[in-house]
Specification:
- The chain is mostly helical.
- The chain has 3 domains: 60 residues, no CATH class; 43 residues; 171 residues, Tetracycline Repressor, domain 2 (Orthogonal Bundle), CATH 1.10.357.
- Helix content is 58%, strand content 11%.
- The strands form 3 sheets. Strands 3-4-5 form a 3-stranded antiparallel β-sheet. Strands 1-2 form a two-stranded antiparallel ribbon.
């Protein structure tokens, strides 16, 4: 039977060793029986090489399936810990706002030391960026699901429902909404090379809906003042990046998004005038107004 060797001598037959952890160089095993000064049940570290000496001159490579499955478990645990850290961060943001986010406070709430947390998110900047990416992706998924559900409906219906989905998402996830659309966080600057693509993806359902209106001849673009060369160049670059959607469609989608975003900022900030009972009718009327403005008659 194959036997592995290490710096502590013969460990055990290969089929009896319980492998509980391994890195690229070492493995932690539980001994199935007493071996000299080592007692049954002890956990020991053994070196992993590309092969092991087995019964004289015969060599055998390490079982790569065992190694890969262990690495997979380690990666899953690491991802689970990252998710727990982000959940604790969202709780802080809900309670005190994004500017008060504290890595030490998060570590304390999870029973981690600050250095342990830094292994997952080396800085507040990286954690905030991860939260922003998650927030934009959550918004994108909500809007895309609505667009998919109503793909056979008229574009007017889709546009109305996208607006209502946007509002519902903001009301259900106010901390996420404020993080990506609210006030800037002190000492934080979003890395646009990471956030711009997913922020643009959250507009995809709206852009496609407006472009469908253009394709069927129903779209009436609002009269616009002359744009500067810089703005035209920026819109053209955006168009080139998303399969050449017309720049006018992109500009219209962006301005519609900012209009409903502004309404949600007012509502979530509890800044609606007291004579408005709630934001339901105000928001629905504004969405209907947008439809009437761009629908060709």
């Amino acid at each position: 039977m194959d036997n592995r060797r290490s710096s502590i001598g013969r460990i055990s037959p290969l089929d009896k060793v319980r492998w509980i952890w391994n890195s690229s160089r070492w493995a932690k095993v539980i001994l199935p029986g007493s071996m000299g000064r080592l007692q049954k049940g002890w956990k020991v570290w053994i070196p992993l090489c590309s092969c092991f000496r087995i019964s004289g001159s015969y060599t055998r490579s390490i079982d790569m399936h065992e190694k890969k499955s262990t690495i997979g478990r380690r990666e899953r645990l690491q991802q689970m810990t990252k998710e727990e850290i982000k959940q604790a961060a969202w709780i802080q943001i809900h309670a005190n706002g994004a500017s008060a986010l504290s890595l030490r406070g998060i570590a304390s709430s999870l029973g981690l030391s600050a250095p342990a947390l830094y292994r997952y998110f080396p800085s507040k900047q990286e954690l905030v960026t991860a939260l922003i990416l998650d927030a934009f992706d959550s918004l994108r998924l909500a809007l895309d699901a609505t667009a998919q559900r109503l793909q056979a409906s008229p574009w007017q219906t889709r546009l109305r429902e996208l607006g209502l989905t946007y509002r519902r998402w903001a009301l259900e996830q106010p901390a996420a909404f404020r993080l990506i659309f609210g006030e800037p966080i002190n000492d934080y600057e979003a890395p646009w090379e990471q956030t711009m693509q997913i922020a643009g993806a959250s507009l995809t359902a709206l852009i496609r809906t407006i472009d469908d209106a253009r394709a069927c001849g129903d779209l009436q673009l609002p009269v616009q003042p002359t744009a500067s060369p810089e703005l035209l160049a920026a819109l053209q670059a955006w168009s080139d990046a998303i399969h050449h959607v017309h720049p006018d469609i992109l500009y219209l989608a962006f301005t519609i998004a900012t209009r409903v975003q502004g309404l949600m900022m007012v509502e979530l900030g509890q800044q609606l005038p007291p004579f408005f009972p709630n934001g339901d009718e105000l928001f629905a009327r504004e969405i209907e107004r947008i439809v009437l403005e761009i629908e060709k008659r």
